[in-house]
Amino acid sequence: MSDSNTTGTAPERRDLIILGGGLVGMTLALAAARAGITAHVVDRADPADLVAEGADGRASAISTASWNLFTNIGLAPALEKLGCPIASIAVTDGMKPGRIDFTPKAEEGTLGRMFANRDLRIALFDAARQEPNIAWHVRTEAVRKDRGAHGVEVELSDGQVIRGSLLIAAEGRQSPTRDEAGFALAKWEYHHRAFVTGLFHEKPHDGTAWEIFYPAGPFALLPLLDDAQGRHRSALVWTVAEKDAAGVSAMPDAMFVNEVFERMHGVFGKIELSAPRMSYPLRFHHAGRVVEERLAVIGDAAHGMHPIAGQGLNLGLRDVGALVEVLTDGMRLGLEPGDAQMLARYEKWRSLDSLMVMAATDGLTRLFGIPGRTASAVRRLGMGAVQRTPLLKRFFMDEARGMSGKLPELLQA
């Protein structure tokens, strides 16, 4: 890999130019590289800042399908010991009676694994540095992007000009490349804000993820591995109405911890913060189109959803698997990566799958957000029915594992 941010002669043309070197963009570069596809990766951030201790307290649920992808591109040895298996998921309406427990049989494995985002980044960046098929341009960004019949040319803010066959926007929710291409977005605000942090807690979590629904929004506790001192840890995602968010932000840590403790109903005993507090507004957006001439949009640039089901990153990794499979198949037939037929196949494959996952997530958010005793009673009745129906439980567990629908080969075991 060339880790480049210098001016001078233009690097050689590569198959892909990936704008955005985050979790999805860098996984794409690595998965493509393992298939013999070369890439320029452009990221405005400094990798050292992204992996600095305490810079990001967020954690991600990695589904079984996404773990298969990491395994198939060689990341499993670096990540194996860093992920906490999700042995079961407890879903409850405000901790009232009538909860659902999703617990797979022993031979079926776990429902996924929880990783600190920092650990995922370190593994990806270390692998990218060893990969000659990746040219990594850091602390720079695209100031000119030209897409034409014969390829793509991008000028970077550090003066370099790079060339490729296909431009990929992996810049996240605010993707300028997607917006410049004029892709129409279905989007709306949830008028909620997610507060994210880590907790130390007195009692072990036993690998259980808790999804506690309150009228103001979901409250999720996600299991992490014990730290080096043996302290029990979980990630917290607490959703509050936007009108209350300023008050929660202004709380001193002690008051914030008290509020969190109250909503946990003592399931993990005494708690304290283990990571910085972060917050972000919750929005839904879905691009009706994800390809244009020599352009593909992936990850949060294409779709953003409520974190209620923890599927945002996993949906982006499904984009990665599908795009690499389409590119590999086409290039085997002698087509170049920017070929319109290949891009049309990618769009058709991903559009329906991503929309179905997002619609289900949005429906769940709205269902559990209806206030009042009657709504709560109806929800608990429905949850009781799921608890007693093995087929329904199996469906939801397959969804959580990411094992439903037409899976790309990279996401299969």
Would you give an account of this structure?
This protein is an alpha/beta fold and 413 residues long. It has a domain of 235 residues: 3-Layer(bba) Sandwich (FAD/NAD(P)-binding domain), CATH 3.50.50.60. The protein has 12 helices and 21 strands. The strands form 3 sheets. Strands 1, 2, 3, 9, 10, 11, 12, 19 and 20 form a 9-stranded mixed β-sheet that branches. A hairpin with a 4-residue loop joins β11 and β12. α1 runs parallel beside α5. It is globular. The two termini are 28 Å apart. About 1% of the residues have low confidence.
Question: Short summary of the structure?
Answer:
This protein has 413 residues and is α/β, with parallel strands linked by helices.
Distance between the termini: 28 Å
What is the approximate shape? Answer: globular
Largest sheet descriptor: 9 strands, mixed
CATH architecture level-2 label of the domain at 2-83 and 117-186 and 285-367 = 3-Layer(bba) Sandwich
Structural class: alpha/beta
Helix segment tally: 12
Question: C-alpha Rg, in Å?
Answer: 22 Å
Mean pLDDT: 86
The tally of strands reads 21
The proportion of residues in beta strands is 25-35%
What's the oligomerization state?
Answer: single chain
What percent of the residues sit in helical stretches (DSSP H or I)?
A: 25-40%
The CATH topology of the domain at 2-83 and 117-186 and 285-367 is FAD/NAD(P)-binding domain
Query: At the first level of CATH, what is the class of the domain at 2-83 and 117-186 and 285-367?
Result: Alpha Beta
**For this structure, what is the CATH homologous superfamily of the domain at 2-83 and 117-186 and 285-367?**
FAD/NAD(P)-binding domain
Unreliable residue stretches: 4-8
